[in-house]
# Entry
Amino acid sequence: MSTLVEILRSDFLLRDALLGSVLVGFVCPLVGVYFLLRRMIFLGVALPQVSAAGIAAAFLLYSLFVGPHSTLAGGERLLAIAGSATFTVTATVLLALWERRGRERVEARIGATYAIAAAATMLLLAKDPHGDAEIVGLLKGDILATTSASLTVMLVTFGAAALVLFAFRKELLLVSFDRDLAVVFGKRAGLWDLVLYVVIAAVISLGVMSAGPMATFGFLVVPPLTVRLITRRMLTFSVGSALLGAVTAFAGFYCAYRYDVPLAPAEIAVASAALAVVATTVAVRRAVWRAA
Amino acid sequence: MTEPVVALRDVSLGYDSTAVLEHVSLAIQRGEFVALTGPNGAGKTTLLRGMLRLIPVLAGRIEYGFDHIANPPGYVPQRESLDPIFPITVFEVVLMGTYAKLPPLWHVSRRARRVAAESLERVGLAAAARRPYWELSGGQKQRVLIARALAAEPAVMFLDEPTAGIDSAAEVAITELLARLNREQRMTIVLVSHHVGRIGSFLDSLIEVDDGAATKRAVAAQNGRDAPVGSTA
# Structure
């Protein structure tokens, strides 16, 4: 109880990190809902890896054409965001185009993207003469290093993403649920796909930078999977997933701080425990209903 | 003669530049009840999707007697084409029909909600509004999709196999609903049907699709109906 009181105090040492965690936990499921509905969950694995490749590429290019990035003095984060966002947006747009035009299955394209991005990350890091532990730290994401400045960036970016998803929910639902109907209605389905993919790319690139690929992917997928089991409406699906993500992020942070364990695995463990409880309850209820 | 709702002029349609139908020339008149029939794989759905601009026209041109943005058509897809992963209620599905005339950032108005509720009532499923869409039977789902098409307040409705895979009672209900919409509101109805069946007696024209061609012939007279102006093939 004293730990809970401590982390809720305004002068808590890791207050920015806690707020950052809850933000990632809240916004990632809003995007993850569309991953689930469009049956492209594996994109949640591939895009964080693409984001990591973008960070490595940005640092390598800086080293080659400007100079050692170790002298950037705080600018590493901006450089990393630029690389991450560029790669993630480009990859999502290309995947969106191939989704409509390609012949092979979408899983094959996403799998290939993951493999290429993972290999590229390692090769780019290996060729960076100034590749060091700090870059590796950025690639892993370190929410505990959140500062008030980076929290502001997260607030603005995630806030804008949530706003876009809310403001255009009709259009995004229509193109996701029945794309043909959207075209028949004269809606620009390709444009709405692009809007969704850009939001996804922005959330993932900043999520990976802030909380790392594991926490980002976990929050993209686990809360929507959990809420999907108990909801009957689209609005409650989105809002419920975001709220569950925020609550499990807070609970995960509490557990990590209380029991001195790594943050991302603690958050995913809490989210997975919630999934297990809900799935078991639903299964038992169905069994009882069938037996009655 | 009135302006046709849809007129195909020497049109070729297909996928990936390979034509499934070639040199199709026909017109569908306002208020006409038309069925596209033919064997499996003949190109009935291809023709319907071409008329709906869902696939590109490979050659020729299609002219429309309505504005796709201001007055879009109603569209009822094959119900299996929708993914059951979406947690969505019957009312949410029908409400989507009102998005046709709703610009981005505009809130769904009370009028739109009323139109959606009335559309659901017209297909006899007002009581199911809050139920999950996926819990309905095949025939009920089909009626919900027709209600969604009605919520767009269209003058013309396109339906892809609306009576496929449903029991005969549901088939009768859907057939009578479409006949009533055509008769009472003069709504133009174009549907794909593998076999004409019960719908046959309500039709003005048949478009027979086979061997890469589509031919229209009037059947209104044999059904004892007054043919819409210009509906002869």
Observations:
- The interface with chain B takes residues 36-37, 39, 167-168, 170-171, 173-174, 176-178, 180-181, 183-187, 228, 231-234, 236-237 of chain A (CB under 8 Å).
- Residues 285 and 291 of chain A are 10 Å apart (CA to CA).
- Chain A is about 80% helix and 0% strand.
